[in-house]
Write a structure and sequence with these properties.
The chain has a single domain, classed as Arp2/3 complex 21 kDa subunit ARPC3 (Orthogonal Bundle), CATH 1.10.1760. The protein is 77% helix and 3% strand. It is built from 9 helices and 2 strands, in the order H-E-E-H-H-H-H-H-H-H-H. The two termini are 29 Å apart.
Length: 235
């Protein structure tokens, strides 16, 4: 038990360090004119799968924190105020603080939660199936978890911008408010799909290797159910 806790702590620290490295080097963000395309969700999704949704949520918070720091002190996009309460305060006042905090942190925290449950869904579907079918479903689960994590980030961030920052976002992009939805849809359909596919491929590749050394996280209750199911199958 102590070794397991130590292993989980070391892995959590490793994922945290990777997030910081990716956030403050060109490895994690791809700056575009309108918004930053990111792959920092990769260690967050992996943490969700192999450490569980609670630690995944913590990694998501770290992701949000790096986004806040980058957009406040190293802004490279027109929408930096969306992720920075400091910049937002100068544009829309006190309400901008809460709005930017919500957009910066909530989607990223959810990135550390949703992928775990997507993967567990595939895991449950694989119960009682042949070894080949279980392997195929596990691979599909990794890919789906990657897609879910990336789309969670993109969809929640962009919908948050539309709901909370439609007018200042239009002003920043120098477009009409009526054109904001089209601009957001363009980002979702390009950045979102590209990031999701990359995440699905990377999570599948890394997860398939990592699972040989550490199983995907299973809560104590789910673990007991799995053991009972295996015992029933064996009998």
């Amino acid at each position: 038990m102590k070794n397991e806790k130590l292993y989980a702590t070391v892995l959590l620290a490793l994922f945290t360090a990777i997030i910081f490295i990716m956030a403050f080097t060109p490895l994690g963000y791809i700056p575009l004119v309108v918004i930053n395309a990111t792959i920092i969700h990769i260690p967050v999704i992996l943490g969700s799968l192999f450490l569980g949704p609670k630690k995944g949520a913590f990694l998501g918070f770290i992701f949000g924190l790096t986004s806040f720091l980058n957009n406040t002190f190293r802004s490279t996009s027109l929408s930096a105020f969306v992720f920075s309460p400091v910049l937002a305060y100068g544009i829309v006042g006190w309400t901008g603080i809460l709005k930017s905090l919500a957009i910066c942190f909530i989607p990223r925290i959810l990135v550390g939660i949703f992928p775990y449950y997507v993967f567990r869904l595939f895991d449950r579907i694989s119960d009682g199936r042949t070894k080949g079918a279980r392997t195929a479903l596990r691979t599909a689960g990794f890919f789906a978890a990657g897609l879910a994590g990336a789309f969670t980030n993109t969809l929640f961030v962009m919908s948050g911008i539309y709901v909370l920052y439609k007018t200042p976002y239009a002003a920043a992009l120098k477009i009409s408010e009526d054109a904001v939805l089209g601009a957001i849809w363009g980002i979702v359909s390009f950045n979102g799909i590209l990031e999701a596919l990359v995440a699905g491929i990377l999570i599948t590749g890394i997860g398939t290797v990592l699972v040989r050394f550490r199983p995907v996280y299973v809560s104590s209750a789910a673990g007991k159910q799995a053991k009972a199911a295996e015992a029933g199958t064996a009998s």
